[in-house]
Amino acid sequence: VLMYAAYGRLMVLGWNPYDITPANIIRQEYDPVMRWVEAPWQDTPSVYGPIASFSQWLAAALGGENMHQVVFWLQMFALIPFVVVAFIAVKLAHGDPAFQTRAVLFTILNPIMIWSICAQAHNEPLTLMFAVAGLWFMRRNAWLAGVGIGLAGCVKVSLVYYGLAMVWGYRHQPRKLIQLCVAAAATIGLGYGLFAPEALFAAARNTSYVSAGSWVEWLHALGVMTIGDASSRRVMSALGLIGLLVIGWMLSRVLPWVTAPGADPGTDPHRDPLTITVRTAALLTAAWLITSPYTLSWYDLITWVPLSLMAANRLDVITMWRGTWLSLAYVAGRVIEFGPGVVVSGFIMRDVLCTAAQIVAIVWVIWWWRSEGGELPSVSLLRDGWRRFRGRPAVP
User: What is the pLDDT of residue 261?
Assistant: First the structure.
């Protein structure tokens, strides 16, 4: 959160956080806000979209030269969207008390998310607020659904998975699909083109990151010793992409097909755009988070929301498992070394137990897929899928 405050402070002072880092300032002069940024982030430029940058600028403008006040406003800009996300999720689940209960428990009463997002003032609720608003319009207005996901992309480009899910949800309705894509492209084009064109490519810097506690941490350490840091990071990125495809396929075979709340009685879940979108968003985001070399607990909100609109399944527990361990890992997992005891406990929790837990999450999905039949891609399966895509029945 101190990094977000520093980006806002840079903009208040008239600098561009995509080009200038906090270190460029504090190495030349004293600044009452940027002086608090911790060393690993002092040299890191912003990777966030124009709406996220605006929220950081506004927090810095309201907080002035007091870091505590700036952080307070950043927390407010996380808390308020978090409440809005929960409200829309509950509204999407209207008419079904079971789904409404899931929506409440998975969002506003989710202790992992309260700690990871609200206390630490992350951007996930801000981007999800627009994306979930887009989900609200999936059955109502494709233009507004596109605007919603476009605005979400103007906060963080990682919401591309929701965009893909929406496209898949409208695949049987070409006119609405075109409306969605045009509205989303226009919104993103205006947002980035007018206000922060460099931000569109800034997130590409994240593709080579490897986070402590991720499933590849041990492999990366071995790779650094054998092929060097840069080459190892490229290998880890490739493994993450392969894992995304493999785990995504497995989840697509096992996640339940239950019509999302609010549909007319008798609606086929395979033809309902909201049901398709919710299920696809859940499997894509979960597959990405489970297999990404760079993964953090607050990212999980993008999976919790679509899960809340689905029937109970094992992915609920898997997401809870990985999020709990990642949250525990970063309690003591600070870069600043407070003492030998904290260093040792942080290493054990973050670099040993958490990494092992993330590997368990992958194995858990594989076991789930195997226990449900372990369906592999095949020519006949692809042929039947193509027939269903064209609205024809599969060959018996």
Answer: 92
pLDDT digits (tens, 9 = 90+) for 79-112: 999 999 999 999 999 889 999 999 999 999 999 9
Per-residue model confidence (pLDDT) at position 392: 60
Kindly report, residue by residue over 127-142, the tens digit of the pLDDT.
Answer: 999 999 999 999 999 9
DSSP symbols for 250-271: HHHHHS---PPTTPPTT--TTT
Quick check: is 189 in a domain?
A: yes
Q: Is residue 185 in some structural domain? A: yes
Burial class of residue 309, CB neighbours in 10 A (0-12, 13-18, 19+): buried
Q: How far apart are CA 75 and CA 61, in angstroms?
A: 14
pLDDT of 199 over the 90 cut: no
Question: Does residue 114 form part of some domain?
Answer: yes
| Whether the Cβ atoms of residue 255 and residue 279 lie closer than 8 Å to each other | yes
Q: Tokens 């060393």, residue?
A: 39
Residue 18 domain-assigned (yes or no): no
Burial (CB < 10 A; 0-12, 13-18, 19+), residue 286, is: buried
- Whole-model pTM? 0.91
Percent helix / strand / coil, the chain, rounded to 5 = 70, 0, 30
Supply the range of the domain harboring residue 272: 47-381
The continuous run of DSSP H or E covering 68 comes out as helix 67-92
**Could you report how far apart the first and last alpha carbons of the chain are, in Å?**
55
Based on the structure, what is the number of domains in the chain? 1
Query: Which candidate, 70, 171, 187, places its Cα nearest to that of 133?
Result: 187
Question: Distance between CA 105 and CA 111 in Å, rounded?
Answer: 9
CA 318 to CA 224: how far, in whole Å?
Answer: 30
Distance of CA 253 to CAs 34, 247, 308, 370, 387, Å?
48, 10, 19, 10, 18
351 near 217, Cβ under 8 Å? yes
More confident residue, 330 or 128: 128
